[in-house]
């Protein structure tokens, strides 16, 4: 993933000669930041966000299973109820 280069964005703002150019430079900066945060509204970034969320959900699921497997069992419990 590319990082937002503040100096490049600052130079674009310094070179702006009109309000429209300032607005355009700001918009490019905001889109770059959104992409880094996986919040951009385009389809590619939404797909990447979805995959990352699925992976994190699997990590949480496996962590819960690991906690259940490591839980001590009392000696008088022999039957484990299905969930």
Structure notes:
- This protein has 83 residues and is an all-alpha fold.
- The protein has 2 domains: 1-37; 42-71.
- Helices cover 66% and strands 0% of the residues.
- It has helices at 6-14, 19-36, 43-70.
- It starts with 5 loop residues before the first helix and ends in a 13-residue tail after the last helix.
Q: Notable features of this structure?
A:
83 residues, 2 domains, mainly alpha, 3 helices
- SSE pattern: HHH
Shape descriptor: rod-shaped
Label the structural class.
Answer: mainly alpha
Q: What is the typical, i.e. mean, pLDDT?
A: 77
Q: What percent of residues are in strands?
A: under 5%
The value of Rg in angstroms is 24 Å
Low-confidence stretches: none
Q: What's the arrangement of secondary structure elements?
A:
Elements: H1 6-14, H2 19-36, H3 43-70
What does this entry show, briefly?
With 83 residues, the protein is mainly alpha-helical.
């Amino acid at each position: 993933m590319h990082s937002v280069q503040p100096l490049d964005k600052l130079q674009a703002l310094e070179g702006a000669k009109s309000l429209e150019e300032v607005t355009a430079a700001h918009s490019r900066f905001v889109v770059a930041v959104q992409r880094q945060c996986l919040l951009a509204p385009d389809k590619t970034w939404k797909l990447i966000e979805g995959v990352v969320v699925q992976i994190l959900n699997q990590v949480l699921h496996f962590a819960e299973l690991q906690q259940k497997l490591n839980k001590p069992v009392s000696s008088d419990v022999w039957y484990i109820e299905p969930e």
